[in-house]
From TrEMBL:
This is Thioesterase domain protein. Residues 56-151 form the AMP-dependent synthetase/ligase domain. InterPro entries: AMP-dep_synth/lig_dom, ANL_N_sf. Gene3D superfamilies: N-terminal domain of ligase-like.
Amino acid sequence: MRSGHVNKVTKRLESCKSHLHHLNHLLDRPVCLTRSALRPEFPSGTGLKIAHVEDLKKAAGQDPLDVAASVAAKTADIAMLMLTSGSTDKPKAVCLTHQQIMASLTGKCAVLPVDAGSSFLNWIRLDHVGSLVEIHLHSMFAGTDQIHVEPSDFISEP
């Protein structure tokens, strides 16, 4: 392996570790939920508390998604945390409530009516608020299909 390639990989790993360490601190040491098979994807030395979905299923005796679906959310409850881009500093977590998301989706569907047979095309990663709310959730709310492609595939051959 060329030393330039090794340096790029090392730099990327260090950047990933730094980002995960920042998120761990920003979110006050949350539990990171993943599948056992994906655990090796997380670099060591980040301080993350990692739990496996499979372990939760065993402990609860039922699928955690079934449990989550049975909980009634209030409109003022936080639905998700979206991270800012970090273009001016480290990324910050922005709280989005159920009410904010529903108001956004209701407004989008009123201004941009979508036919039931339509499809949404997305080439932006789902960790971006625009992609998540403008495409993914909007499509779900409107009851349409979604097509997701890698940004590099779309940009290289639009």
